[in-house]
Amino acid sequence: MITGGLGLIGSALARRLADFGADVDVLLVDSLNENFGGNLFNIENIRDRVRINISDIRDTHGLRYLLRDCDFIFNLAGQTSHMDSMSAPFEDLQINCLAQLSLLEACREINPSVRIVYASTRQVYGRPQYLPVDEKHPIHPVDVNGINKVSGESYHLLYHQAHGIRSTVLRLTNTYGPHMRIRDARQIFLGIWIKNVILGQPFEVWGGEQVRDFLYVEDAADAFIATALSDSTIGKVINVGGSEAVSLAELAGLLVDGTQTAGFRVCEFPADRKRIDIGNYFTDDSLFRRLTEWRPQTPLRVGLERTVDFYRANSRHYL
Amino acid sequence: MITGGLGLIGSALARRLADFGADVDVLLVDSLNENFGGNLFNIENIRDRVRINISDIRDTHGLRYLLRDCDFIFNLAGQTSHMDSMSAPFEDLQINCLAQLSLLEACREINPSVRIVYASTRQVYGRPQYLPVDEKHPIHPVDVNGINKVSGESYHLLYHQAHGIRSTVLRLTNTYGPHMRIRDARQIFLGIWIKNVILGQPFEVWGGEQVRDFLYVEDAADAFIATALSDSTIGKVINVGGSEAVSLAELAGLLVDGTQTAGFRVCEFPADRKRIDIGNYFTDDSLFRRLTEWRPQTPLRVGLERTVDFYRANSRHYL
After folding, report:
1. Is B188 helix (H, G, I), strand (E, B) or coil?
2. What is the C-alpha to C-alpha distance for residues A83 and A148, in angstroms, rounded to an integer?
3. Is residue A273 part of a domain?
4. Are A158 and B151 a contacting pair at CB < 8 A?
5. Any B CB within 8 A of A235 CB
6. Are B156 and B170 contacting, i.e. CB atoms less than 8 angstroms apart?
7. What's the gap between Cα B315 and its chain centre?
8. Per residue in A167-179, pLDDT tens?
9. What CATH number did the domain enclosing A227 receive?
């Protein structure tokens, strides 16, 4: 089962799992909440090889039924918009905190031998105190979303420690690629950039000097599979970083280089974003590299080209 | 307003505030949930000098009305039992996580200039990595209660940082004294000890070697007032420790010395408690001592004597 299975990473993971063949029964659970990343077009080319159940992870009764026979739960469903978490904090709490506890309680009761991999985010670290950021870095969430993701993580670890549920928490850095939401910046700011590139319009880079690392979506999907197949990751919190770290201005340059667009302009951070921005961030994921064979395979330039090519061909499904 | 105003610390704080005289209007909000620490007898001697409103902090509409004219909120209401948080995790989440966000959202909307002091717990640190434990110690909650208290803290800090609400988080060590719950161990294990002392029965000390510091309830109440009156504490997380640190066996000895009881016996930790016990703990509260004039005034021996005397006279209200 993949919660959030119609989203950016969930759908990439579904494709990987579908490629394992008929022995693997893949169930995708997704609310298709119009503000989130789910999109049926994301799994169009594997639609006959997966099962789809449209439901919200807040639907506790439905979830209890769906998870009873699962061997693996890739738990990716979540509200991801930092701005929305500040303007609608209770919805973020219900999805990222309460529903996570519900899922784990259901596993404890009716499927305690399930293996869970939970998708968390580098946002829980807040403003980095040192770089690169490893798993020992203090937790300091800077928005409601970060606070609730910390709770979601903690529940997964506690249910391992206290109840023996075999769970792992992955803290992913910024993930991008084909099938991401580009209608707005709710999933990742890069969505808006790509949208403008596709429409032939200039896009805005806020600040521009902040450094980030970027994880291509297929590398992210591979990280979930490598985790699920490695018992040494059980009960742990593990960072998953990108292939390389660049400034946002460099990222914009890479994006424009590979396309023929009107370019971009660097401008001031809006005040309401500035307040919750976290400065430079990039990941130390040496723990994950020690525990598994996983390595990011896709250079940023290649990933960006594939992404733009995908949206040039399929933008009508995403705009 | 004091949420949890009929509980151990809330009622001591109410007495202190009532003593300020007619200029201070004290509103006590308490659910009198039979599993928690609230008890009307706790405020019997100040009943004509305070207002009492029996309601649950999950009652969002009621709370919005009650807090609209408050200058100070001493936010002490909470589910405190670690075992109950494991067996009834959703109730713990509603009270210690969701209701805290509701209270802060209400303040942001209708009383943004209020001053809030939030009662958290040393439990958020989990098993200490070093001693004494200061505020920089990593957060590692070991039960559902700890996870939700971390969320409660984080919301208070975020609403300061993002919305300017003047809040402070106090992490209290084990607090004891007259007016605590002694019917069972839901508030503090010492409750059960006192109950047995009063009944002339031997009590059990689990383990016995673990070191803890203990904060007398009137010193805890003074800590809340010192915080509310010090602007330098706004936006901070601050430890509040006890007068001295002793092993549980020493604590039991002190308790028995001052009374004529059948004594105690040291025995093995029950398995379900062992799993979530955190070993030795005592507090570094030098930050609080730098920011305020507060010092604990009550030696442990004196506090224990006062506590036993109180329950000898009033046990029928607590058993």
Report:
1. coil
2. 14
3. no
4. no
5. no
6. no
7. 21
8. 999 999 999 999 9
9. 3.40.50.720
Q: Phi then psi for B114, rounded to 5 degrees?
A: -65, 150
Tens of pLDDT, residue by residue over B10-27, are 999 999 999 998 889 999
Contacts of B22 (CB under 8 A, 6+ apart): none
Paired tokens of B294: 């507060």
Q: Is A97's CB within 8 Å of B101's CB?
A: no
For residue A11, the enclosing domain spans 2-179+214-243+282-298
- Contact indicator for A282, A211 with CB cutoff of 8 Å: yes
Residue type, A182: I
ipTM of the complex as predicted? 0.92
Provide, rounded to the nearest whole percent, the portion of chain A with pLDDT above 90. 87
B144 to chain A: which residues are within 8 Å by CB? 101, 155, 158
Task: Tokens for A175, please give them.
Answer: 């993930």
The amino acid sitting at B289 is R
Q: Tell me the C-alpha to C-alpha distance, in Å, between residue A276 and each of A145, A279, A297, B92, B158.
A: 11, 9, 31, 28, 10
End-to-end CA distance of chain B: 28
Q: Which residues, in sequence order, are CB contacts of A12 under 8 Å at separation 6+?
A: A177, A179, A217, A218, A220, A221
Residue A224 counted as domain residue? yes
Three-state secondary-structure class, residue A206: strand
In a domain, A206, yes or no: no
**Which candidate in A151, A163, A273 is best for mutational testing of the B interface (most B CBs within 10 A)?**
A151
- Cα distance between residue A238 and residue A233, in whole Å: 8
Specify whether the CB–CB gap between B115 and B73 falls below 8 A.
yes
Name the strand (E) or helix (H) holding B150: helix B144-163
The answer to whether the peptide bond before residue A132 is cis (omega within 30 degrees of 0) is: yes
Number of domains chain A contains: 1
In sequence order, which residues have a C-beta less than 8 Å from that of residue A110 and are 6 or more positions away?
A: A64, A67, A68
Q: Report the distance separating Cα A25 and Cα B266, nearest Å.
A: 54
Residue B224 resides in a domain = yes
CA B291, chain centre distance (Å): 21
